[in-house]
Each structure stands twice: as C-alpha cells, then as structure tokens.
Amino acid sequence: MNRTIVFYVILFLAAMVAPVVLYPFLLMELLCFALFASAFNLLLGYAGLLSFGHAAFFGMAAYISSILMRDYGWPIEFGLLASVLGSALLGLVFGWIAIRRSGIYFAMITLALAQAVYFLAVQGSGITGGDDGLHGVPRGNFFGLLDLSEPLILYYFVLGVFIGAFWLIQRIVHSPFGLILKAVRDNEPRAISLGYDVGHYKLLVFVLSAALAGLAGSLKSIVFQLASLSDVHWHTSGEVILMTLLGGMGTIFGPLVGAGIVVTFKHSLAQGILAESLPIVMGFLFVVCVLVFRRGVVGEVQAFLKSRSGNGIERDVPLEPPQPKVSMKRRR
Amino acid sequence: MDEIFGFPPQLLLAQIFMGLINGSFYAVLSLGLAVIFGLLRIINFSHGAMYMLGAFSAWFGLQYLGINYWLALILSPLAVGVFGLLIERTMLRRIRHVDHLYGLLLTFGIALILEGAFVHFFGVAGQRYPTPDALQGGINLGFMFLPYYRAWVIIASVVICLGTWLIIERTKIGAYLRAGTENPDMVQAFGINVPLMTSLTYGFGVALSAFAGVLAAPLVSVSPYMGSNLIIVVFAVVVIGGMGSLLGAVITGLALGVIEGLTKVFYSEAAGLVIFMIMIIVLLVRPAGLFGRPE
Known about the structure:
Chain A is an all-alpha fold.
C-alpha cells in the first residue's frame, strides 16, 4: 500500500516539474491522449468491449466545445461541461444500439456508427468547417481566475483536469460496479446467472467511457485551438486502440504509457523523412503487439514483477491477457 | 406512365442500375468476409486493403508489364490470394487460439501498413484505369443508356457469387469447409488437413476481394484509400445480413446497393447514411441480422 502511494507521489512530482524539461504543448497533447486512452481502456480493458468508434465521442466533443466557446462565447467551464454531456448522450445512443451484439459485431457496429458521425461532419461543413476544421478557439479564463492563454498555466489546468478524470476512472475500476464489469468481461453467462443485468452495466460503462473520451477531445480542442475532421476519423479510433493495446489493456497505467509511446512516435516521425509513413509505423506496432506482445508494456512489466516477487504495484491484470467473451464460440 | 412518385422512370431506373453496381461490390466483399469468418472466426479488416491491392496490381500490370484487363482479372486475384495465404500462414495462424478480436486488430494493422505503403509510393491521388476495348460504349435501351462495362460488372459479380455459393454448398471441398465451420477438430480427426484448408479459405476470401478490385478499377480512380471507405460500409452490410448465410450476404449486398441508389433520387443528402440507418433499424428489430442465427 505504501509503495503505491510513494509511486503516485513520484509520478505527481514528475508531472509538476515536467514542463521545465519538456515542451508544454507536447505534454498537454500527451495528457489529452492519455485521458482518451484511459477512457477507452475503461471499456475494453475492464468491460471487454472493443469499440472501434471512439473517435466519434472525441471529435464530437471537440466540435461542441469549439463552437460554443468560439461562436457563442461560452466560458471554458461550461464549454467543457456541455461537450462532456454531449458525448455522453451520443454514447448513450451508440451504446443502446451496439450492446445488442457482442464481440466482433460490437466492434463493427461502433465503427459503422462512428462513420455515420464522420459522414455528418463532412456533410455539415457549414457547422464543422469541413476539411478546414474550426480554428482559433479561444481558451479564455477558467472561472475568471486562470489566464489559460499562458502555456504554463494551461498546462497545469490540463494536468488538473487529467488528474481528476484519472482519479474518477480509478474509483470506477475499484468500485463494486467495476468488479461487476470484470465479472461480465470474464464470464458473462455467469454474471447473468448471478442476477446482474448485464446490458445495464455495459450501457453504463459505455456512457462513462464516451463522456470521458469527450472530455479528452474537448481538452484537445482547447489546447490546440482546433477541432477538425481528423478527430472524428476512424484513424483516431484506431490510434486510441493502439495506445491501449501497446500500453497494456486492463491496467491502470497502460493507456498512459501507450499514449506516451504513440505521441512520441508521432512527433519524432513528423520531422524526419518518414513524415507521411506514420500509418505504416502504427500498423507495424499493431501487428507486433498482437503477435508477440498482447499484454502490452505495463502488462508485461506487471507479469514480470509478479513472477519475481509476487508483489507488483497494480494487480489488476490476470496473467493471461483479458479475454473479452465472444459469444460466437467454436464449440457449443 | 410518366412519373413514379413524381420522378421520371428513366431517372429511377438509372439509379437502381447504379445501385446494383455498388451492390455488386458490397455482395462480393461481404461474401468474402463471410467465407473467411466461417472458418477463421475473424473479421478481416484488411479486406478493403486487399480490394485496393487488386485494383492497384491490375493498374500496375497494365502500366508496366503490359498485362491486359482480362488477364489481370485472373492474375490479380491469384497474386493477392497467394499474398493472403502467406499472411494466414505467418501471422493469423499464430493467434488462432486467442480471442478472435485480436484477429480484427491484426488485420487492421495490416491494412494500415498496406495503405500507408501505397500512399508512400503512389501518393493519395487516384490513377486512371482505362475501360477494356471490348466493353467500350454501350446500348440505348430506350429508357436508359446502358454502358457495356457496367453491365459486365454486375454479371461478373453475380456469376462469381453464385459460383462461390455452388462450390461451398454443392461440392465435396465445400462440404469439408462447412464441416470445418461447425467443428474443425472433428474434421481434422477424419484426416482432413484443416490448417491447409484454413489458409486456402483465407486466400480465397481475399482473392474475391481482389477480383472486386479489378472490376472496380475502370469505374473508380485507383487510389490507396479506395478500400477503407468501402469496407466500413461493407461491415454495416454484414451486420445487417448476419453472417449465417452466404447467399444471404449476397442478396443483402445487392439489395442495399439498390436502396442506396434509390435514396440518391429521393433524398440525395442521406445516400451516404442510409445503410447505417438500416443497420440501426435492423439491430433494434432483429439483432442477429436478417439472415443470422441468434447468438
């Protein structure tokens, strides 16, 4: 227990001094995507539901907060709130439709629904700005106190929001609700036979995940003062899956590590001759991950620590990678 | 009869016809997905990339090797099929025993690599593939002008779908395949080489996709992203049809193409959305899909 607290304190201190060493905007991008991946991991890692359409929530929230703050002059706190509510609502609709199927079908349905949202964003270029996106979103003041146009202040603001959301995810995972989710993930028929309304739990976690993904998208649009079509594109959905898979799904810190790796890759490639070959690198990471590395970085480290001393920091992940129940079984 | 629902019948028929062409591609692609799913239990996300590969290899063959359309119609699916076989052998086989969602993720990664590589070498701009000489021009049917090539696309697609269906439902190899879908271990115990059959099935599935790609090459511009936009719609088609029946996949594909074409007449803004809308309605009314068996 003590070790966990020490670990968190060190992490917090590192995040506090990080902008001295690293470019604040890189760190903020990292935090936004780490939050996005953590929200996604809540769904995939703990409930075993693979959504291929999370870009819809991320991008939708980015559009909502950009429009409200830029065109209607809403203050940032209400812009964030509205975009989170908007993406939660969208999540409710998506979830309500998609939880009727599971496994591979669930992935295909969420992908198709997100594509419909993308299509609407392209179609409604009068609102979304089409290919150009929405530029020049004002950052404003937080409660009239913090001037967010100052990069350092913005960084600490984003860090604060991130820590709050991360704490919430942590609470969800370790709550009775989170434990039921894991039961559904590991053995759905058993959870049903124990009297749990599985559909209800799936829907709730889907909405929570969508809302938090929306928070990430909205933060991203404020940091970069931009909401664009690429935020709703399926590439972004793929990216967040990769982050979670790479870091280790079903682990608390996996998505953070995965987001760190992917964002670093993106930035180091952006300058070199490999600039346009980012999809190749991402695809390659996907293939390597699935073939040899299914537990992800954090999952592997935890498994190593566990095998060595049986005293890891987090003990959420089983030794086998989480196996979402796919209802299409080979044998009956 | 001058008008149907306030629209001239010429326009309606022309759009139904255009819809049938899109529907042919949906049908061939979803058939390939269903064949692969039957034995491997994975959804092949790289199906769209294989379709692109088929079109690109036809274009490349014509441009640099002097391979004409008709030869490409045979050679491209063969080449892509062999490529698929290698992918199954080297990668998909290794994740057979883990959750099938990993298959989706792996093939997604392969699709990203293939598309990225083609963007790198050929750019995002589309390449033109000429219509073969024998199918130039068209015929005036009185109510509409019918280009020969478009008619050929529909005929070729329907023939290849029916052929596939006949092979699987009426031949001995097909019987092995269907048995393998039900219980691979038992089929293996009877002395059938199931791993080989699995490789061939995957190769055949992606070859179908490449065939569709060659058919599409003269109609659309051959570009790296031509497959990924299509494949998401095909996923929706597969969800609507359910993968329980091969013929069901073909019928669903054709029908949805026609519905999409008709939507262009009545409310063109919704044409890109209509298939997703139908998917939502089907999920609400009949979650297993029109031809699917309940889970």
